[in-house]
Write a structure and sequence with these properties.
12 helices; 425 residues; 19% strand; alpha+beta; Nucleotidyltransferase, domain 5; Arc Repressor Mutant, subunit A; 4 domains
Length: 425
C-alpha cells in the first residue's frame, strides 16, 4: 500500500523542474522519490544540455525622431553634425521630440574631435573686441567664381558676436564690416585685436608696426586702438577663434543660399535667434543679457566713408574702366588720373585731383557694360566716317580693271626661251 506522500506524486515532470531541483541542491534520490522517476532517468535529465525556448526579440519602440532620420542623414552627408542646428531644422518640420533623441541618434556617426589645451584670457567690460577674417568657401557672382570671406567680431566681456560675409577682402570691406559690427552692438570698444593682415598692417619689423593709413584713420575716427596680435600667437585671440569655429560648425555648414545678400540675411537671423540668445559655455549667461553692461563707447556723430577706392586714368573715349565695365566722365578730363569710389549703396563716384565730383553712375553688375552720360560729350565734334581702301575689286569680263593696272611691254615666248638658254650656259 502506498504512503500518503505518494498519493500526490506527479507521474510526469518537465525536465526543467528536475534541473531546477538539482541546482537547488536536492539529491538525486530525493528528486527520484518526489518525481516518481528512476534515479537513472533523473541522472540523464540532469546531464542533458539545456533546451531553452527561443523568444522573438521585441520590436523596436517607435521614436519621435524616426520620421526625420532620412533628413538628418542627408544633412550629415553635407557635414552637419551640430545637434542643436539639426534640432532646430527638424523642429521647423514638425519634430515634437527633445534634443536628447537627436544627440543619441547623431553620436555614433560623429567624427572624432581633437582638442588642444589653451590659456583663457579675460578682459574688462568695453575693453576689447577680437576680429577674425578668413575664407569660408566660394560662390558664383556675375558669372565669376569668387571667394566668400567671413568677418567675425566678438566682444571680449559679453561674448556678443557679429558675423558678415563678403566677396571682397580689401581695406574698404574690412572697415565696412567693422562699422556694421559697431552699429549692431550699439557702440565701440576701446581696442580691437586682429591679425596682421594687409587690410590693417602694411608691415611689421623690429617691433614697429606700420598701419594701413586708411584703416588707421578709420580707427582714430571711430575711437578705438588697433592691436595686431603677436605673430604665431593665435591663442591671444581665442575668443574669436572659437567664435569662427562656432560660425562654421553651426551656421555655415550645410547652408543653402543664392548670393551674398541672402547669406547675410540668414546670418542676421542666426545672430538674433541662435548665437547671441544662447547661454554661453564660459559665462553661463546669454551674450544679449551681458551687452547692457559692456560699457561701449558711443558711435561718432557722422558715419565714416567706407567706399571702395581706386585710381583710374580716363581714356581718349572719355571713359574709365572699373571691374570690366566703362563709365563716362566729362571730356575735359581725358588722359587724366581720377579717383573712383564705389559706395555702400551701389553708386560709382568719380572725383578729380582737386577733390571735386565730376561724374556719378550706378554700379553695373554685369561684364563689359557701358554707363554713358551724353552731357559728358557736349561740344565734341561728331566723329567722321572712316573710309577704307578696298583690297580687291570684282569686275565684269570687259577687263576694265586694266585702266588701273601698270603698263607692261608684251614680248613673244621665244624671247624668254632665249634668255633661259643663255642663263643655262
Amino acid at each position: 500500500m502506498l504512503g500518503v506522500e505518494h498519493q500526490f506524486m506527479i507521474p510526469a515532470v518537465f525536465p526543467s523542474v528536475i534541473k531546477d531541483m538539482h541546482r537547488k541542491g536536492v539529491s538525486i534520490s530525493e528528486i527520484a522519490r518526489q518525481t516518481g522517476h528512476d534515479r537513472k532517468t533523473v541522472r540523464k535529465v540532469i546531464a542533458a544540455p539545456e533546451i531553452t525556448e527561443g523568444r522573438k526579440p521585441a520590436p523596436p519602440r517607435a521614436r519621435k525622431i524616426d520620421p526625420y532620420t532620412d533628413y538628418v542623414q542627408r544633412r550629415m552627408a553635407e557635414g552637419v553634425y551640430n545637434t542643436r542646428k539639426l534640432y532646430r531644422e527638424i523642429r521647423a518640420q514638425g519634430y515634437a521630440g527633445g534634443l536628447t533623441q537627436v544627440i543619441l541618434y547623431v553620436q555614433p556617426f560623429r567624427p572624432p574631435r581633437q582638442e588642444r589645451a589653451t590659456v583663457r584670457f579675460e578682459t574688462e567690460p568695453g575693453q576689447q573686441a577680437q576680429v577674425d577674417w578668413g575664407v569660408c568657401g566660394y560662390l558664383e557672382e556675375n558669372q565669376r567664381r569668387k571667394n566668400v570671406y567671413c568677418f567675425v567680431m566678438t566682444l571680449g566681456w559679453s561674448r556678443m558676436m557679429y558675423v558678415e560675409f563678403t566677396t571682397r577682402g580689401d581695406t574698404g570691406s574690412f572697415m565696412r564690416c567693422h562699422l556694421h559690427a559697431f552699429e549692431y552692438f550699439g557702440g565701440v570698444p576701446r581696442e580691437v585685436l586682429h591679425d596682421n593682415l594687409k587690410s590693417a598692417v602694411i608691415d611689421r619689423e623690429n617691433g614697429t608696426i606700420r598701419f594701413n593709413a586708411r584703416y588707421l584713420d578709420f580707427a582714430l575716427t571711430m575711437g578705438f586702438t588697433p592691436h595686431p596680435h603677436q605673430p604665431y600667437r593665435a591663442q591671444t585671440k581665442g575668443k574669436v577663434e572659437s567664435g569662427v569655429r562656432y560660425v562654421k560648425g553651426n551656421f555655415w555648414v550645410g547652408l543653402h543660399f543664392t548670393d551674398v545678400a541672402d547669406i547675410n540675411r540668414q546670418a542676421r537671423v542666426w545672430l538674433d535667434e541662435v548665437a547671441n540668445p544662447r547661454i554661453h559655455g564660459t559665462t553661463g549667461v546669454t551674450p544679449f543679457s551681458r551687452l547692457a553692461d559692456e560699457q561701449l563707447q558711443p558711435l561718432p556723430g557722422h558715419r565714416f566713408d567706407t567706399s571702395h577706392i581706386s585710381y583710374r586714368q580716363v581714356g581718349r573715349d572719355c571713359r574709365v574702366t572699373y571691374q570690366t565695365n566703362t563709365y563716362s566722365v566729362p571730356a575735359a578730363y581725358t588722359q587724366q588720373t581720377v579717383v573712383v569710389k564705389e559706395t555702400e549703396d551701389g553708386r560709382l563716384i568719380i572725383v578729380n585731383a582737386a577733390g571735386e565730383v565730376i561724374a556719378e553712375h550706378r554700379v553695373r553688375r554685369g561684364h563689359h557694360q557701358a554707363a554713358v552720360d551724353p552731357a559728358h560729350y557736349a561740344g565734341l565734334p561728331a566723329p567722321l566716317p572712316q573710309h577704307r581702301q578696298p583690297l580687291a575689286f570684282q569686275t565684269s569680263g570687259d577687263n576694265n580693271w586694266g585702266r588701273w593696272a601698270p603698263q607692261v611691254e608684251r614680248r613673244a615666248l621665244q624671247q624668254y626661251e632665249q634668255v633661259l638658254e643663255v642663263s643655262g650656259d
